[in-house]
C-alpha cells in the first residue's frame, strides 16, 4: 500500500480567481494553464495498519498544524469517497516550488498527493476522475494531472461532477518556455483562498472580470492552435492584469505586488519594444512568470537576472502530466 508520484506545477494564462462553491472548490470561470517542467513535487504515500493518525513531512521536515491538516483532510476525502476505512498514511513530499509565494505550490503538491494516495490504495482512476478528485484538494491542482496546455472546465452541476481539467494541447505540441522570476519566497500575507473570497464578496470590478473570461479563453485557444505566440502572450498578460485589478477594488483592498514586481513588468515591456517577444503573468503572489520562445532564452535570462531585487530566474520548458516512480 505504497506509491510515489511526481507532479509539475502549472501556471494559469487565463486565471482562476473566485469560487462558486467554497467546500467543493468549484470555480466561477474556466481557466487555462501551461504545465512547467521546472517546478515539481514528488510525494510518497504509504498506508499502514496501526497508525493512529496521518503524518506528513515536507522536504524532510515533519509538518504540523495547517499543513498537516490540509493533507489529512484530503486523505479523509479519499477514504470516504472510495469507502477505504480508517487506515492512516505516512506522506513524504519533496517540493521544488516556493510555498505560498505565487508559484502554484499547492497545484503540484495536491496533484502528486492525489495520484500517490489513490495508486497506493490500488484505485485505478482515469485522468478525468483523478482531476475531479484533485480539484477538491486545491483547485488549480486539477490542471497538473496533464502536461502541456490545460483547461479547467468550471462545470454547471452543483455536485461538481462536471468540473475537471482537460488537455488542450500536449507538451510536445509547441515549444513555449517560461521563466520563473523569484523575487520573494516568503509566505504571502493574504492567501489565495482568502484573497479570492474577499474579492468575490466585495470588489465592484469582479463581475466585469468574470464577463471577460469567455472571449479571452476563446482567443487564447485559437492562438495555441495557430501557434501564434504574440496572440497568446497579449491575452495572457492582459488577463493577468485584469485579475489583479479586482484585488484593488476589494474591501479592504490588497495587492500581491512588490516594487520589484513592477520592475520586472516594465523590463518585459522594454524587451518587447526592443524586438524580443516576451510577456508576463503573475499569480497570487509577488513573483513574475515570463513567457518567451526558445530562440530568445539567453537574452531573456540575462535581462531578467540583471533586474535589482531578482533573487533567481528559473527556466522551464513545457512539462508533462502525472508520472509514477
TrEMBL record:
Q: Which organism is it from?
A: Aciduricibacillus chroicocephali
- Keyword Lipid metabolism in the entry? The reply is yes
What family is reported?
Answer: Belongs to the diphosphomevalonate decarboxylase family.
Start and end of every Diphosphomevalonate decarboxylase-like N-terminal domain?
7-165
Picking any one GO molecular function of the record gives: diphosphomevalonate decarboxylase activity
**Mind telling me which PANTHER family this protein's record contains?**
DIPHOSPHOMEVALONATE DECARBOXYLASE
Q: Which InterPro entries match?
A: GHMP_kinase_C_sf, Mev_decarb, Mev_diP_decarb, MVD-like_N, Mvd1_C, Ribosomal_Su5_D2-typ_SF, Ribsml_uS5_D2-typ_fold_subgr
Q: Which domain of life is it from?
A: Bacteria
Which top EC class is named for this enzyme in its record? lyase
Among the Pfam families in the record, one is MVD-like_N
Provide the protein name.
Answer: diphosphomevalonate decarboxylase
Where does the Mvd1 C-terminal domain lie?
181-305
Q: Which Gene3D superfamilies match?
A: 3.30.230.10, GHMP kinase, C-terminal domain
In short, the EC number is 4.1.1.33
Q: Which NCBIfam families match?
A: mevDPdecarb
Which keywords are on file for this protein? Answer: ATP-binding, Lipid biosynthesis, Lipid metabolism, Lyase, Nucleotide-binding
The cross-references to SUPFAM superfamilies, in alphabetical order and at most eight, read: GHMP Kinase, C-terminal domain, Ribosomal protein S5 domain 2-like
